[in-house]
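Thread amino acids onto this structure.
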């Protein structure tokens, strides 16, 4: 074996050991429930999302979970992480996926996390339209007719009960 191979091997081993160390530390904060959810028992932020010390800083546990379980290649704070289960404390990579703000809202609405009922009205709206609605000086009735949705839908959007960002 030539020296170059030794260096490559020790570099690989080093990264592997660091990875295994992070993974075992991560899993020590996970409580696997019977329903399949992995409840985070480590530290959380003020909103209740799990946090984990990773690569020299505090990161969201659900993001690190996707990375450590090879679901994503890197941590990408630009993207939101979507939960397919209803538990925001869950870090099971099978219950998580990366997505955009719009996909995330669609998920929440579909699952009824935001609002039960009147689900069918939401598919007609997009974030652009929601921003327009919030800035509009027209009456609720006028806006509702313009976008062909129920008055209630518009009222909830204006009051900030639906289409909420984290
Ligand atoms: Zn879950």
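Threaded sequence (166 positions):
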């Amino acid at each position: 074996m030539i020296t170059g191979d030794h260096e490559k091997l020790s570099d690989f081993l080093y990264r592997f050991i660091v990875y295994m160390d992070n993974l075992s530390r991560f899993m020590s904060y996970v409580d696997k429930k019977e329903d399949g959810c992995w409840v985070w028992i480590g530290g959380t932020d003020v909103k209740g999302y799990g946090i984990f010390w990773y690569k020299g800083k505090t990161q969201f546990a659900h993001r690190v979970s996707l990375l450590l379980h090879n679901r994503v290649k890197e941590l990408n704070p630009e993207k939101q992480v979507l939960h397919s289960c209803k538990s925001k404390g869950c870090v099971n990579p099978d219950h998580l996926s990366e997505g955009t703000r719009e996909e995330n809202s669609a998920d929440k609405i579909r699952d009824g996390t935001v609002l039960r009922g009147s689900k069918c009205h939401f598919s007609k709206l997009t974030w652009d339209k929601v921003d327009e609605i919030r800035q509009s000086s027209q009456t609720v009735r006028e806006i509702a007719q313009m976008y062909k949705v129920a008055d209630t839908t518009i009222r909830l959007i204006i009051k900030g009960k639906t289409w909420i960002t984290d």
